[in-house]
Design brief:
Blueprint: H1 2-27, H2 31-38, H3 43-81, H4 86-94, H5 99-106, H6 114-117
Helix pairs in contact: 1-3, 2-3
Length: 134
């Protein structure tokens, strides 16, 4: 159970940490951070209340991409580790109840040769497209 969680969490964790570090580095030079420090506020308050609040916009802007990566990686991880998880729920929610049965009915029976099922038995002669007069 540790390995699937590590596979799913490592890339988003590193991505969010990198974006947070870049956003915080950009905020540290702002006037309101210097003002908060000049007021004598503790560094913890300056970082968590003022700097992190200013850096929150780029972090939240990256969240849709991070969640997309998590859900797409979840499909691969659940297939590799044979773990029935969120992607099974997403597949069940996205497909109508009879879709799998309908798809199976539209496929040829297993004893029919593939070229005949694909229509290769009907040969047509190729002819160039008709020219328009104009």
């Amino acid at each position: 159970m540790v390995l699937p969680v590590a596979c799913l969490a490592l890339l988003p964790l590193v991505t969010v940490a990198r974006i947070t570090a870049q956003a915080m580095a950009g905020v540290y030079g702002q006037d309101y951070i210097r003002t908060a420090r000049a007021k004598g506020l503790p560094e913890r308050v300056v970082i968590y209340k003022h700097a992190l609040a200013g850096a929150l916009v780029p972090i939240l802007d990256a969240m849709p991409g991070v969640l997309t990566v998590v859900f797409s990686n979840a499909l691969v991880v659940e297939l590799l580790f044979h773990y029935p998880g969120v992607t099974n729920l997403l597949q069940d929610a996205a497909s109508p109840p009879g879709l799998v049965a309908d798809l199976r009915r539209s496929l040829p029976p297993p004893d029919v040769p593939v070229p005949l099922a694909a229509g290769a038995g009907r040969r047509r002669r190729w002819s160039p497209p008709a020219r328009r007069s104009g």
